[in-house]
Amino acid sequence: MKRLIYLINIFSLLHILQAKCQTNLVPNPSFEQYTNCPPGYIDICVPWQNPTTSSNSNILAGFFSSCSTNGCCGVPLNIFGSGYQYARTGSSYASMFISQYYGSSSFIKHYIQTPLVDSLAGGHYYYVEFYTNLVNRSMYACNNIGLLVSKNAPTFAAGQIISATPQILNYGNPIITDTLNWIKVSGVYKATGGESFITIGDFKTDAQTDTIVIGTNNPLASDCAQYNIDDVSVLPLDSFCLKADAGRDTTIKVGDSVFIGSLTN
């Protein structure tokens, strides 16, 4: 009987530890929870929102899901993909214009935003990441895809950008050109305390954003840089756990090296 009680206590402790190791402060991080399947491109999953004060639908980010019966917004095939793009996790993801229609007067930048499950504690460190890739139909690829952590929810209007400096950018801030694989953008953030929102997008003007042309041979290419977003995380580092992983059994000799530990990706 004592052995059974000990086993129950151990399993309970492991369950508690596992729960603490999975504390993602981003609600609906993979866009899998929704009230309705997306009937149109501008729909987004609550509590995610388009942080604009404008009624101009051209500056609203969108939501794609395999549940959609509308040809614009399916997964893996949608009107913007001119090809297949599966979600990194589950069957849904967000999609957004990072930079405007080049050479035109239409100034278009999209942002997506959500309140966090809990505000950040001052002086504590958080591991932040999201995954992105370039939409097949884009004529351009660019850099500056970043994540802003803030106390209040920033907004923008048509013809404007959110004037802020994102704390999370890809290392070296390269131009992301991959249209197949999901590219991780990640970093560590030290909270000042009270931060309650995250916003993803390009917080620089197009003049400050590096771009390259990649889609001239695509007859369906749009003169913009559009990116998909999936799997967004804000993880407290004081409850961030890694699986025990000593690697495969191996024999080494003098001069050899072997990795021991856990990979975070």
What does this structure look like?
There is one protein chain. The chain has 265 residues and is mostly beta strands. The protein has one helix at residues 2-21, and strands at residues 62-65, 92-99, 111-115, 125-134, 140-142, 146-150, 168-169, 183-190, 197-201, 211-213, 225-236. The strands form three sheets. A five-stranded antiparallel sheet has the order 1-2-11-4-8, with no helix packed on it. It has a four-stranded antiparallel sheet with strand order 3-9-6-7, with no helix packed on it. Mean pLDDT is 78; it is low at 1-19.
Summarize the structure.
With 265 residues, the chain is mostly beta strands.
Summary keywords:
265 residues, mainly beta, 5-stranded antiparallel beta sheet, 4-stranded antiparallel beta sheet, disordered N terminus
- Could you give the order of strands across the largest sheet? 1-2-11-4-8
Helical stretch tally: 1
Q: Over the alpha carbons, how many angstroms does the gyration radius reach? A: 21 Å
Q: What is the 3D form?
A: globular
Poorly predicted ranges = 1-19
Q: Major sheet, described briefly? A: 5 strands, antiparallel
Q: Give the ordered list of helices and strands.
A: HEEEEEEEEEEE
How would you summarize the topology of this molecule?
Elements: H1 2-21, E1 62-65, E2 92-99, E3 111-115, E4 125-134, E5 140-142, E6 146-150, E7 168-169, E8 183-190, E9 197-201, E10 211-213, E11 225-236
Antiparallel strand pairs: 1-2, 2-11, 3-9, 4-8, 4-11, 5-10, 6-7, 6-9
